[in-house]
From TrEMBL:
CDD domains: MFS_STP. This is Major facilitator superfamily (MFS) profile domain-containing protein. Pfam families: Sugar_tr (PF00083). It comes from Anisodus acutangulus. GO terms for cellular component: membrane.
Amino acid sequence: MAGGFAGGGNGGAEYEGKVTTFVIMTCLVAATGGLLFGYDIGISGGVTSMDEFLLKFFPNVYHKEKALKEGGNQYCKFDDHMLQLFTSSLYLAALVASFAASITTKAFGRKISMLIGGLIFLVGAVLNGAAMNLVMLIIGRLLLGVGIGYANQSVPVYLSEMAPPKLRGALNVCFQMAVTIGIFIANLVNYGTSHMKKNGWRVSLVLAVVPAIIMTVGAVFLPDTPNSLIDRGQKEKAKTMLQKIRGTNNVDNEFEDLIIASDMSKQVKNPWGNILKPRYRPQFTIAVLVPFFQQLTGINVIMFYAPVLFKTLGFGDGAALMTAVITGLVNVFATLISIFTVDRFGRRVLFIIGGLIMIVCQVAVGVIIASVFGMNGQGTFSKGLGNGTVGLICIYVAAFAWSWGPLGWLVPSEVFPMEIRSAGQSITVSVNMFFTFVIGQLFLTMLCNMKFGLFFFFAGFVVIMTQFILFFLPETKGIPIEEVNRIWKNHWFWKKYMPVDDIHV
Protein backbone atom coordinates (compact mmCIF):
# COMPACT_ATOMS: atom_id res chain seq x y z
CA MET A 1 0.00 0.00 0.00
CA ALA A 2 1.57 3.28 -0.97
CA GLY A 3 0.50 6.71 -2.00
CA GLY A 4 2.48 9.89 -2.35
CA PHE A 5 1.97 12.93 -0.18
CA ALA A 6 3.42 16.37 0.25
CA GLY A 7 2.90 18.86 3.05
CA GLY A 8 -0.49 20.22 3.89
CA GLY A 9 -2.69 22.35 1.75
CA ASN A 10 -2.87 24.90 4.55
CA GLY A 11 0.62 26.15 3.89
CA GLY A 12 2.68 23.41 5.49
CA ALA A 13 6.17 22.45 4.41
CA GLU A 14 6.57 20.16 1.40
CA TYR A 15 7.79 16.77 2.61
CA GLU A 16 8.36 13.90 0.21
CA GLY A 17 7.03 10.49 1.14
CA LYS A 18 4.51 7.71 0.72
CA VAL A 19 1.76 6.29 2.86
CA THR A 20 3.52 3.01 3.62
CA THR A 21 2.10 -0.28 4.82
CA PHE A 22 4.63 -0.17 7.66
CA VAL A 23 3.35 3.11 9.11
CA ILE A 24 -0.29 2.06 8.70
CA MET A 25 0.29 -1.22 10.56
CA THR A 26 2.38 0.47 13.21
CA CYS A 27 -0.33 3.04 13.93
CA LEU A 28 -3.07 0.41 13.98
CA VAL A 29 -1.15 -1.64 16.55
CA ALA A 30 -0.55 1.45 18.69
CA ALA A 31 -4.21 2.47 18.44
CA THR A 32 -5.24 -0.78 20.13
CA GLY A 33 -4.36 1.07 23.34
CA GLY A 34 -7.85 2.51 23.00
CA LEU A 35 -9.29 -0.98 23.60
CA LEU A 36 -8.33 -0.69 27.28
CA PHE A 37 -10.23 2.55 27.70
CA GLY A 38 -13.23 1.41 25.68
CA TYR A 39 -13.62 -2.01 27.28
CA ASP A 40 -13.62 -0.50 30.74
CA ILE A 41 -16.15 2.21 29.83
CA GLY A 42 -18.51 -0.40 28.44
CA ILE A 43 -18.02 -3.10 31.04
CA SER A 44 -18.58 -1.01 34.18
CA GLY A 45 -22.10 0.12 33.23
CA GLY A 46 -23.25 -3.42 32.41
CA VAL A 47 -21.76 -4.97 35.54
CA THR A 48 -23.41 -2.38 37.80
CA SER A 49 -26.81 -3.38 36.38
CA MET A 50 -26.32 -7.10 37.23
CA ASP A 51 -28.26 -8.29 40.28
CA GLU A 52 -25.56 -10.70 41.50
CA PHE A 53 -22.91 -7.97 41.43
CA LEU A 54 -25.17 -5.47 43.21
CA LEU A 55 -26.19 -7.99 45.87
CA LYS A 56 -22.55 -8.85 46.65
CA PHE A 57 -21.04 -5.37 46.73
CA PHE A 58 -23.96 -2.89 46.88
CA PRO A 59 -26.88 -4.65 48.62
CA ASN A 60 -28.58 -1.35 49.48
CA VAL A 61 -28.86 -0.46 45.79
CA TYR A 62 -30.12 -3.96 44.98
CA HIS A 63 -32.92 -3.83 47.56
CA LYS A 64 -33.88 -0.25 46.61
CA GLU A 65 -34.10 -1.15 42.92
CA LYS A 66 -36.33 -4.15 43.66
CA ALA A 67 -38.60 -2.03 45.86
CA LEU A 68 -38.94 0.65 43.16
CA LYS A 69 -40.11 -1.93 40.65
CA GLU A 70 -43.38 -1.74 42.57
CA GLY A 71 -43.55 2.02 41.91
CA GLY A 72 -41.86 5.19 43.16
CA ASN A 73 -39.29 7.71 41.96
CA GLN A 74 -37.55 6.02 39.01
CA TYR A 75 -34.97 8.82 38.79
CA CYS A 76 -33.36 7.75 42.08
CA LYS A 77 -33.32 3.96 41.93
CA PHE A 78 -29.51 3.69 41.43
CA ASP A 79 -28.42 6.76 43.43
CA ASP A 80 -25.52 5.52 45.58
CA HIS A 81 -22.12 7.20 46.02
CA MET A 82 -20.20 3.96 46.56
CA LEU A 83 -21.68 2.45 43.39
CA GLN A 84 -20.61 5.59 41.52
CA LEU A 85 -17.16 5.36 43.14
CA PHE A 86 -16.73 1.90 41.57
CA THR A 87 -17.06 3.54 38.16
CA SER A 88 -15.32 6.85 38.81
CA SER A 89 -12.31 5.83 40.97
CA LEU A 90 -10.53 4.55 37.86
CA TYR A 91 -10.49 8.00 36.30
CA LEU A 92 -9.07 9.68 39.37
CA ALA A 93 -6.17 7.21 39.24
CA ALA A 94 -5.76 7.87 35.51
CA LEU A 95 -5.56 11.60 36.19
CA VAL A 96 -2.63 11.16 38.60
CA ALA A 97 -0.93 8.53 36.42
CA SER A 98 -0.96 10.79 33.36
CA PHE A 99 1.61 13.10 34.99
CA ALA A 100 3.95 10.20 35.73
CA ALA A 101 3.36 8.99 32.18
CA SER A 102 4.48 12.38 30.84
CA ILE A 103 7.88 11.97 32.50
CA THR A 104 8.19 8.37 31.28
CA THR A 105 7.13 9.25 27.74
CA LYS A 106 9.68 12.04 27.40
CA ALA A 107 12.57 10.22 29.08
CA PHE A 108 12.15 6.70 27.69
CA GLY A 109 9.88 7.04 24.68
CA ARG A 110 6.23 6.54 23.80
CA LYS A 111 6.32 2.74 23.43
CA ILE A 112 7.70 2.23 26.95
CA SER A 113 4.73 4.16 28.37
CA MET A 114 2.36 1.96 26.38
CA LEU A 115 4.10 -1.17 27.68
CA ILE A 116 3.88 0.01 31.30
CA GLY A 117 0.23 0.95 30.87
CA GLY A 118 -0.66 -2.47 29.45
CA LEU A 119 1.08 -4.39 32.24
CA ILE A 120 -0.52 -2.38 35.07
CA PHE A 121 -3.96 -2.66 33.44
CA LEU A 122 -3.45 -6.43 33.22
CA VAL A 123 -2.83 -6.70 36.97
CA GLY A 124 -5.89 -4.55 37.72
CA ALA A 125 -8.11 -6.73 35.52
CA VAL A 126 -7.05 -9.91 37.33
CA LEU A 127 -7.62 -8.27 40.72
CA ASN A 128 -11.10 -7.10 39.72
CA GLY A 129 -12.11 -10.51 38.44
CA ALA A 130 -10.97 -12.13 41.69
CA ALA A 131 -12.43 -9.45 44.01
CA MET A 132 -13.92 -10.79 47.25
CA ASN A 133 -14.84 -7.45 48.82
CA LEU A 134 -15.35 -3.80 47.92
CA VAL A 135 -11.81 -2.76 48.92
CA MET A 136 -10.27 -5.34 46.58
CA LEU A 137 -12.63 -4.21 43.84
CA ILE A 138 -11.69 -0.52 44.20
CA ILE A 139 -7.93 -1.29 44.32
CA GLY A 140 -8.31 -3.20 41.06
CA ARG A 141 -10.14 -0.23 39.56
CA LEU A 142 -7.34 2.11 40.64
CA LEU A 143 -4.75 -0.07 38.89
CA LEU A 144 -6.88 -0.10 35.75
CA GLY A 145 -6.89 3.69 35.98
CA VAL A 146 -3.10 3.87 36.13
CA GLY A 147 -2.91 1.71 33.00
CA ILE A 148 -5.41 3.91 31.16
CA GLY A 149 -3.57 7.07 32.26
CA TYR A 150 -0.36 5.76 30.67
CA ALA A 151 -2.09 4.57 27.50
CA ASN A 152 -4.12 7.73 26.93
CA GLN A 153 -1.07 9.91 27.48
CA SER A 154 1.24 8.08 25.10
CA VAL A 155 -0.90 6.61 22.30
CA PRO A 156 -2.34 9.85 20.78
CA VAL A 157 1.12 11.46 20.80
CA TYR A 158 2.64 8.35 19.21
CA LEU A 159 0.05 8.33 16.45
CA SER A 160 0.40 12.05 15.72
CA GLU A 161 4.19 11.75 15.45
CA MET A 162 4.25 8.63 13.27
CA ALA A 163 1.52 9.59 10.81
CA PRO A 164 2.21 11.54 7.58
CA PRO A 165 0.53 14.99 7.65
CA LYS A 166 -2.18 14.05 5.15
CA LEU A 167 -3.28 11.03 7.20
CA ARG A 168 -2.60 12.27 10.73
CA GLY A 169 -6.29 12.80 11.43
CA ALA A 170 -7.45 9.41 10.16
CA LEU A 171 -4.68 7.43 11.87
CA ASN A 172 -5.14 9.29 15.15
CA VAL A 173 -8.89 8.66 15.03
CA CYS A 174 -8.04 4.94 14.99
CA PHE A 175 -7.40 5.36 18.73
CA GLN A 176 -11.02 6.44 19.21
CA MET A 177 -12.12 3.67 16.85
CA ALA A 178 -10.42 1.18 19.17
CA VAL A 179 -12.22 2.82 22.12
CA THR A 180 -15.60 2.35 20.43
CA ILE A 181 -14.78 -1.27 19.51
CA GLY A 182 -13.81 -1.86 23.13
CA ILE A 183 -17.14 -0.42 24.30
CA PHE A 184 -19.09 -2.56 21.83
CA ILE A 185 -17.25 -5.77 22.77
CA ALA A 186 -17.82 -4.99 26.46
CA ASN A 187 -21.55 -4.55 25.83
CA LEU A 188 -21.68 -7.91 24.04
CA VAL A 189 -19.77 -9.57 26.87
CA ASN A 190 -22.13 -8.08 29.45
CA TYR A 191 -25.17 -9.28 27.52
CA GLY A 192 -23.71 -12.79 27.37
CA THR A 193 -22.53 -13.01 30.98
CA SER A 194 -25.83 -11.60 32.31
CA HIS A 195 -27.40 -14.96 31.36
CA MET A 196 -24.91 -16.90 33.47
CA LYS A 197 -26.41 -18.26 36.69
CA LYS A 198 -23.31 -17.42 38.72
CA ASN A 199 -20.21 -15.20 38.50
CA GLY A 200 -21.13 -13.57 35.20
CA TRP A 201 -19.79 -10.26 36.50
CA ARG A 202 -16.42 -11.89 37.27
CA VAL A 203 -16.11 -13.09 33.68
CA SER A 204 -16.95 -9.59 32.40
CA LEU A 205 -14.31 -7.96 34.59
CA VAL A 206 -11.50 -10.48 34.13
CA LEU A 207 -11.83 -10.45 30.31
CA ALA A 208 -10.25 -6.98 30.47
CA VAL A 209 -6.95 -8.92 30.42
CA VAL A 210 -7.49 -9.52 26.68
CA PRO A 211 -7.11 -5.88 25.51
CA ALA A 212 -4.29 -5.49 28.06
CA ILE A 213 -2.38 -8.41 26.52
CA ILE A 214 -2.99 -7.10 23.00
CA MET A 215 -1.57 -3.68 23.86
CA THR A 216 1.34 -5.03 25.92
CA VAL A 217 2.49 -7.50 23.27
CA GLY A 218 1.96 -4.92 20.53
CA ALA A 219 4.06 -2.35 22.41
CA VAL A 220 6.99 -4.79 22.59
CA PHE A 221 7.21 -4.90 18.79
CA LEU A 222 6.44 -1.25 18.03
CA PRO A 223 9.25 1.05 16.88
CA ASP A 224 9.65 4.38 18.62
CA THR A 225 8.83 7.62 16.80
CA PRO A 226 11.57 9.61 15.02
CA ASN A 227 10.62 12.61 17.20
CA SER A 228 11.21 10.65 20.39
CA LEU A 229 14.46 9.10 19.14
CA ILE A 230 15.85 12.53 18.23
CA ASP A 231 14.75 13.90 21.58
CA ARG A 232 16.79 11.15 23.26
CA GLY A 233 19.90 11.76 21.14
CA GLN A 234 19.53 8.82 18.70
CA LYS A 235 19.64 10.87 15.49
CA GLU A 236 20.93 8.22 13.08
CA LYS A 237 18.36 5.71 14.27
CA ALA A 238 15.70 8.42 14.00
CA LYS A 239 16.60 9.21 10.39
CA THR A 240 16.51 5.52 9.47
CA MET A 241 13.08 5.19 11.11
CA LEU A 242 11.82 8.31 9.32
CA GLN A 243 12.96 6.88 5.97
CA LYS A 244 11.19 3.62 6.76
CA ILE A 245 7.83 5.14 7.75
CA ARG A 246 7.88 7.62 4.83
CA GLY A 247 8.96 5.02 2.26
CA THR A 248 11.74 7.17 0.82
CA ASN A 249 15.39 8.06 1.52
CA ASN A 250 14.71 11.72 0.74
CA VAL A 251 13.58 12.87 4.18
CA ASP A 252 16.19 15.58 4.75
CA ASN A 253 13.72 18.47 4.96
CA GLU A 254 11.42 16.79 7.47
CA PHE A 255 14.37 15.41 9.44
CA GLU A 256 15.93 18.87 9.68
CA ASP A 257 12.67 20.32 10.98
CA LEU A 258 12.50 17.58 13.63
CA ILE A 259 16.09 18.36 14.67
CA ILE A 260 15.27 22.06 15.02
CA ALA A 261 12.15 21.28 17.04
CA SER A 262 14.13 18.95 19.30
CA ASP A 263 16.90 21.52 19.84
CA MET A 264 14.27 24.06 20.83
CA SER A 265 12.67 21.57 23.19
CA LYS A 266 16.00 21.00 24.95
CA GLN A 267 16.21 24.74 25.65
CA VAL A 268 13.01 24.42 27.65
CA LYS A 269 14.17 23.10 31.02
CA ASN A 270 10.76 23.25 32.66
CA PRO A 271 7.94 22.36 30.23
CA TRP A 272 5.37 22.52 33.02
CA GLY A 273 6.33 26.10 33.77
CA ASN A 274 6.76 27.11 30.13
CA ILE A 275 3.36 25.83 29.09
CA LEU A 276 1.81 28.60 31.20
CA LYS A 277 3.70 31.33 29.31
CA PRO A 278 1.63 33.62 27.05
CA ARG A 279 3.21 32.23 23.85
CA TYR A 280 1.64 28.84 24.64
CA ARG A 281 -1.71 30.27 25.75
CA PRO A 282 -3.60 28.98 22.64
CA GLN A 283 -2.32 25.41 23.04
CA PHE A 284 -2.88 25.43 26.80
CA THR A 285 -6.45 26.63 26.31
CA ILE A 286 -7.14 23.86 23.79
CA ALA A 287 -5.55 21.26 26.11
CA VAL A 288 -7.92 22.27 28.90
CA LEU A 289 -11.19 23.23 27.20
CA VAL A 290 -11.47 20.53 24.52
CA PRO A 291 -11.34 17.57 26.98
CA PHE A 292 -13.49 19.55 29.45
CA PHE A 293 -16.16 20.10 26.83
CA GLN A 294 -15.84 16.50 25.60
CA GLN A 295 -16.96 15.23 28.99
CA LEU A 296 -19.69 17.87 29.38
CA THR A 297 -21.38 16.60 26.21
CA GLY A 298 -22.91 14.03 28.55
CA ILE A 299 -21.61 11.10 26.49
CA ASN A 300 -20.40 9.18 29.52
CA VAL A 301 -23.93 9.31 30.90
CA ILE A 302 -24.68 6.95 28.01
CA MET A 303 -21.43 4.96 27.87
CA PHE A 304 -20.93 4.37 31.62
CA TYR A 305 -24.51 3.90 32.62
CA ALA A 306 -26.33 2.85 29.45
CA PRO A 307 -27.87 -0.32 30.96
CA VAL A 308 -28.61 1.54 34.21
CA LEU A 309 -30.16 4.45 32.29
CA PHE A 310 -32.30 2.13 30.16
CA LYS A 311 -33.46 0.25 33.26
CA THR A 312 -34.41 3.62 34.75
CA LEU A 313 -36.48 4.23 31.63
CA GLY A 314 -38.36 1.00 32.25
CA PHE A 315 -36.51 -1.54 30.10
CA GLY A 316 -36.03 -5.02 31.57
CA ASP A 317 -32.58 -6.37 32.44
CA GLY A 318 -31.97 -8.17 29.11
CA ALA A 319 -33.54 -5.40 27.03
CA ALA A 320 -31.43 -2.75 28.78
CA LEU A 321 -28.20 -4.63 28.04
CA MET A 322 -29.21 -5.31 24.43
CA THR A 323 -30.05 -1.63 23.92
CA ALA A 324 -26.56 -0.81 25.20
CA VAL A 325 -25.17 -3.21 22.58
CA ILE A 326 -27.12 -1.34 19.88
CA THR A 327 -25.75 2.07 20.96
CA GLY A 328 -22.27 0.55 21.06
CA LEU A 329 -22.61 -0.69 17.49
CA VAL A 330 -23.80 2.74 16.34
CA ASN A 331 -20.74 4.20 18.08
CA VAL A 332 -18.38 1.96 16.09
CA PHE A 333 -19.87 2.64 12.65
CA ALA A 334 -20.19 6.39 13.22
CA THR A 335 -16.50 6.59 14.17
CA LEU A 336 -15.70 5.21 10.71
CA ILE A 337 -17.28 8.38 9.29
CA SER A 338 -14.68 10.42 11.13
CA ILE A 339 -11.80 8.26 9.88
CA PHE A 340 -12.81 8.79 6.25
CA THR A 341 -13.74 12.48 6.49
CA VAL A 342 -11.49 14.16 9.07
CA ASP A 343 -8.59 14.71 6.64
CA ARG A 344 -10.92 15.63 3.80
CA PHE A 345 -13.32 18.11 5.40
CA GLY A 346 -11.23 19.08 8.44
CA ARG A 347 -11.76 19.10 12.19
CA ARG A 348 -13.99 22.18 12.51
CA VAL A 349 -16.78 20.97 10.20
CA LEU A 350 -17.13 17.65 12.05
CA PHE A 351 -17.05 19.38 15.45
CA ILE A 352 -19.80 21.85 14.52
CA ILE A 353 -22.17 19.46 12.72
CA GLY A 354 -21.82 16.90 15.51
CA GLY A 355 -22.51 19.55 18.13
CA LEU A 356 -25.70 20.78 16.45
CA ILE A 357 -27.12 17.26 16.17
CA MET A 358 -26.28 16.47 19.81
CA ILE A 359 -28.10 19.59 20.99
CA VAL A 360 -31.32 18.62 19.17
CA CYS A 361 -31.20 15.01 20.43
CA GLN A 362 -30.55 15.91 24.07
CA VAL A 363 -33.36 18.46 24.18
CA ALA A 364 -35.74 15.96 22.55
CA VAL A 365 -34.83 13.19 25.03
CA GLY A 366 -35.28 15.60 27.94
CA VAL A 367 -38.75 16.58 26.67
CA ILE A 368 -39.81 12.94 26.25
CA ILE A 369 -38.60 11.91 29.73
CA ALA A 370 -40.36 14.95 31.22
CA SER A 371 -43.61 13.95 29.52
CA VAL A 372 -43.41 10.41 30.92
CA PHE A 373 -41.94 10.78 34.42
CA GLY A 374 -42.67 14.44 35.17
CA MET A 375 -41.15 15.81 38.38
CA ASN A 376 -42.12 12.94 40.69
CA GLY A 377 -40.37 10.23 38.65
CA GLN A 378 -43.46 8.07 38.35
CA GLY A 379 -44.63 6.75 35.02
CA THR A 380 -44.08 4.12 32.37
CA PHE A 381 -42.72 4.36 28.84
CA SER A 382 -44.92 3.02 26.09
CA LYS A 383 -43.17 0.76 23.59
CA GLY A 384 -43.30 3.46 20.90
CA LEU A 385 -41.91 6.22 23.13
CA GLY A 386 -39.24 3.87 24.48
CA ASN A 387 -38.08 2.93 21.00
CA GLY A 388 -38.18 6.59 19.92
CA THR A 389 -36.01 7.56 22.89
CA VAL A 390 -33.50 4.83 22.06
CA GLY A 391 -33.45 6.09 18.45
CA LEU A 392 -32.67 9.64 19.57
CA ILE A 393 -29.93 8.37 21.87
CA CYS A 394 -28.42 6.41 18.98
CA ILE A 395 -28.40 9.52 16.76
CA TYR A 396 -26.77 11.46 19.61
CA VAL A 397 -24.11 8.74 20.03
CA ALA A 398 -23.44 8.76 16.27
CA ALA A 399 -22.97 12.55 16.24
CA PHE A 400 -20.52 12.33 19.15
CA ALA A 401 -18.67 9.42 17.54
CA TRP A 402 -17.76 11.36 14.39
CA SER A 403 -17.02 14.63 16.17
CA TRP A 404 -16.21 15.21 19.83
CA GLY A 405 -15.26 11.60 20.50
CA PRO A 406 -12.24 11.20 18.21
CA LEU A 407 -11.45 14.89 17.71
CA GLY A 408 -11.36 15.47 21.45
CA TRP A 409 -8.19 13.35 21.46
CA LEU A 410 -6.83 14.24 18.02
CA VAL A 411 -6.79 18.04 18.17
CA PRO A 412 -4.97 18.44 21.53
CA SER A 413 -2.36 15.84 20.49
CA GLU A 414 -1.41 17.74 17.31
CA VAL A 415 -1.24 21.38 18.41
CA PHE A 416 1.74 21.33 20.80
CA PRO A 417 5.34 21.99 19.73
CA MET A 418 7.77 19.27 20.78
CA GLU A 419 9.22 21.13 23.76
CA ILE A 420 5.93 20.98 25.66
CA ARG A 421 4.17 18.08 23.86
CA SER A 422 4.37 15.48 26.64
CA ALA A 423 3.33 18.03 29.27
CA GLY A 424 0.49 19.26 27.06
CA GLN A 425 -0.83 15.77 26.43
CA SER A 426 -0.70 15.04 30.16
CA ILE A 427 -2.83 18.13 30.81
CA THR A 428 -5.32 16.94 28.18
CA VAL A 429 -5.52 13.47 29.74
CA SER A 430 -5.72 14.77 33.31
CA VAL A 431 -8.51 17.25 32.49
CA ASN A 432 -10.37 14.53 30.61
CA MET A 433 -9.96 12.04 33.45
CA PHE A 434 -10.90 14.57 36.14
CA PHE A 435 -14.19 15.51 34.53
CA THR A 436 -14.83 11.86 33.61
CA PHE A 437 -14.42 11.16 37.34
CA VAL A 438 -16.77 14.01 38.24
CA ILE A 439 -19.47 12.88 35.81
CA GLY A 440 -19.05 9.23 36.80
CA GLN A 441 -19.27 10.06 40.50
CA LEU A 442 -22.20 12.49 40.30
CA PHE A 443 -24.39 11.42 37.38
CA LEU A 444 -26.79 9.12 39.24
CA THR A 445 -27.14 11.72 42.00
CA MET A 446 -27.67 14.47 39.40
CA LEU A 447 -30.31 12.32 37.69
CA CYS A 448 -32.06 11.88 41.02
CA ASN A 449 -32.05 15.62 41.78
CA MET A 450 -32.18 17.31 38.36
CA LYS A 451 -34.45 14.67 36.80
CA PHE A 452 -35.18 15.29 33.10
CA GLY A 453 -33.47 18.70 33.44
CA LEU A 454 -30.13 16.87 33.38
CA PHE A 455 -30.44 16.43 29.61
CA PHE A 456 -31.08 20.16 29.16
CA PHE A 457 -28.03 20.81 31.37
CA PHE A 458 -25.75 18.87 29.02
CA ALA A 459 -27.41 20.37 25.92
CA GLY A 460 -26.56 23.83 27.24
CA PHE A 461 -22.88 22.91 27.45
CA VAL A 462 -22.94 21.55 23.89
CA VAL A 463 -24.27 24.96 22.75
CA ILE A 464 -21.34 26.70 24.46
CA MET A 465 -18.67 24.34 23.18
CA THR A 466 -19.93 24.43 19.59
CA GLN A 467 -19.58 28.21 19.66
CA PHE A 468 -16.08 27.82 21.12
CA ILE A 469 -15.08 25.70 18.10
CA LEU A 470 -16.69 28.14 15.70
CA PHE A 471 -14.77 31.17 16.99
CA PHE A 472 -11.59 29.88 18.64
CA LEU A 473 -10.37 26.67 17.00
CA PRO A 474 -8.37 27.14 13.77
CA GLU A 475 -8.16 24.29 11.25
CA THR A 476 -5.17 21.92 11.62
CA LYS A 477 -5.93 19.66 8.65
CA GLY A 478 -2.92 18.70 6.54
CA ILE A 479 -0.27 20.73 8.41
CA PRO A 480 2.95 18.87 9.45
CA ILE A 481 2.92 18.40 13.21
CA GLU A 482 6.08 20.45 13.79
CA GLU A 483 4.57 23.36 11.82
CA VAL A 484 1.12 23.47 13.38
CA ASN A 485 2.22 26.49 15.39
CA ARG A 486 1.70 28.69 12.29
CA ILE A 487 -2.11 28.48 12.67
CA TRP A 488 -2.07 30.58 15.84
CA LYS A 489 -0.17 33.41 14.15
CA ASN A 490 -2.93 33.71 11.54
CA HIS A 491 -5.89 33.46 13.92
CA TRP A 492 -7.93 36.61 14.68
CA PHE A 493 -7.77 36.08 18.46
CA TRP A 494 -4.73 33.94 19.24
CA LYS A 495 -2.23 35.90 17.12
CA LYS A 496 -1.79 38.48 19.88
CA TYR A 497 -0.10 35.81 22.03
CA MET A 498 2.45 34.81 19.40
CA PRO A 499 5.89 36.46 19.59
CA VAL A 500 7.16 37.90 16.31
CA ASP A 501 10.47 36.01 16.51
CA ASP A 502 8.88 32.57 17.09
CA ILE A 503 10.87 30.16 14.93
CA HIS A 504 7.84 27.85 14.60
CA VAL A 505 5.82 30.51 12.78
